[in-house]
């Protein structure tokens, strides 16, 4: 009986630990992503009332590519028929001009899987 109680306690404890670890992980990833977003923010303003060189990225995860009405996208991106799923965002930030040849966005290359994770975690918060 004593071992059952002890193991239940240990299980309960480790469960609550892992839940808070996941929450910390999210915050950590978003913070790291925010840092990486410095490579993007010169062109992508987070203030949608501002006209930036690149389109507003708030709500971009899950959005159809080239779908903002007030932005002059390249023909290449307009014809791409891409939806910004996580997988497609990964390809885009790993090498946007290989993924969509003819895009107007200057070449970016973030190939590190962890860095891609961070950036996408951050993009989800926008
Ligand atoms: C030098 C300016 C510049 C930089 C730096 C830049 N972008 Fe862009 N971005 C653009 C432009 C311009 C477009 C529109 C491309 C087109 O129409 O072909 C774009 C488009 C996008 C899109 C598609 C949005 C849509 O509405 O379909 C995403 C996603 C994106 N950028 C993410 C990023 C991320 C993430 C970074 C940083 C790693 C980044 N960009 C860095 C200029 C930039």
Automatic annotation (TrEMBL):
The signal peptide, as residue positions, is: 1-23
- Keywords for this entry? Electron transport, Heme, Iron, Metal-binding, Signal, Transport
PROSITE patterns with a match to the protein in the record: CYTC
User: Which Gene3D superfamilies does the UniProt entry name for this protein?
Assistant: Cytochrome c-like domain
Task: Kindly give the SUPFAM superfamilies that the UniProt entry links to this protein.
Answer: Cytochrome c
Protein's UniProt keywords contain Translocase? no
Record protein name field: Cytochrome c2
In the record, what lineage is assigned to the organism producing the protein? Bacteria, Pseudomonadati, Pseudomonadota, Gammaproteobacteria, Oceanospirillales
């Amino acid at each position: 009986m004593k071992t059952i109680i002890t193991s239940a306690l240990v299980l309960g404890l480790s469960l609550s630990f892992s839940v808070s670890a996941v929450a910390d992980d999210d915050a950590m990833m978003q913070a790291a992503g925010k840092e990486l977003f410095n490579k993007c923010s010169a062109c992508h303003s987070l203030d949608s009332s501002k006209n930036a060189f690149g389109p507003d990225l708030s709500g971009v995860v899950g959005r159809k590519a080239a779908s903002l009405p007030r932005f002059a996208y390249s023909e290449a991106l307009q014809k791409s028929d891409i939806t910004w799923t996580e997988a497609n965002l990964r390809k885009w930030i790993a090498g946007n001009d290989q993924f969509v040849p003819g895009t107007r966005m200057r070449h970016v290359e973030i190939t590190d899987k962890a860095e891609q994770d961070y950036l996408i975690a951050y993009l989800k918060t926008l």
